[in-house]
Amino acid sequence: MTGDPNQVSARLASPINWGEVHRRLERTQAALEQRTTLTADEMKVILKARAKALAPEQEPDQCEQDRLEVIEFVLADEKYAVESSYVREVCRFKEFTPIPGTPAFVLGIINVRGEIISVVDLKKFFGLPEKGLPDLRKVILINDGEMEFGLLADTVTGLRHILLQDLQATLPTLTGARKEFLKGVTAARVAVLDSARLLSDERMLVDQKNEP
Predict the structure, then answer these.
(1) pLDDT of residue 210 exceeding 90
(2) Cα–Cα distance between 196 and 182 in angstroms, integer?
(3) CB–CB of 83/195 below 8 Å?
(4) Do 155 and 132 meet the contact criterion of CB atoms below 8 Å apart?
(5) Distance between CA atoms of 138 and 123, rounded to whole angstroms?
(6) Can you list the domains of the chain with their CATH numbers?
(7) Cα–Cα dist 158/165, whole Å
(8) pLDDT at 173
């Protein structure tokens, strides 16, 4: 460092005029706010920033359109799924009351917190073999606002997200009722059922008058 040491010390020791600093900042801000004319390059930068800011808000909607959220479960060692938007809740299967005069696939009725709900045994409805552990069985309650009943499952494996583009129409092994109520099959061979069609099928309707 060059110069007189005493002068250097004096400069370093002089106090900062913070009032003047703030006034300069205010004048600079006012000058920027008064500029109303932007160059073409400035406009491009602003539009690009706006587009980037809006992009995250649009991406979730697109993702929701491209994928399906389902509840996956097991029937006789085969994997099935129903759309989560139709699932009210999943509860443990305990005691049930048979209903006289109903098809064999209508297992009976259960009491869910004071509400009586019929339960459908999909294994019998689909003609699947009786496999699975009875003490692990769950009931998936599905509802469309008008119709509601439970689907008996050997086990419920959890919530999954499926890409719609990965769904196949069907498999050669899926025939009869399984094909009739099929929405699609994933690459992992999970059969996604058409919940809306199940809920609208008259065979699932249980006459309340016949309940004990």
Answers:
(1) no
(2) 11
(3) yes
(4) yes
(5) 13
(6) 18-65 (no CATH), 68-210 (2.40.50.180)
(7) 21
(8) 59
